[in-house]
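Just scan my protein:

——
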Amino acid sequence: MISYLDGEIILKKDKFVIIEVAGVGYKIFLPRQILLTLPAIGENLKVFTFQNVKEEALDLYGFLTYEELEFFEILNDVRGVGPKAALELSVVGPLEKIKDKILKQDTNVFAGVPGIGSKRASSIILELTGKIKTFGAKSVSADEAENALVGLGFTKQQAKEALSGVSPALKTEERIKLALKNLRR
């Protein structure tokens, strides 16, 4: 599963970006708000990704923070909300404000998102209420290498242990490589 990518922006379009990582181009769908803030073509981009595997396609959805990715995954699990709708819903504002509005049953939280009216917003909020209380309870490390290892499927503890013998002065990519070698032992 592809959970994190760091590469050069090759192409930017209305709904996606293509980044090159080690000679391979990855098409990553991003929310409109994020696409508007991306650096220029030729610049570097780091994204946390969700890989959606379907019979007819293999799509990647990208986010600048791990918290946005987690919220997307919660939304994607809601009945009737697919990955494209979850992509737009996941970044309608700062996550804490979204969480507060959902807990207050405010149907305007998703106002302006195409295809989401007040009736649909109500059903989404109803299903999210129980899930959203636990969202954000887990702390996410500021260490990019640790987050990348967790994104690859290792536990937070395994990632910390693997990185404990690796110098924090190294580049993130080097730290991940060395940590992966430690995990293989």
Q: What stands out?
A: The mean pLDDT is 85. The longest strand covers residues 44-53.
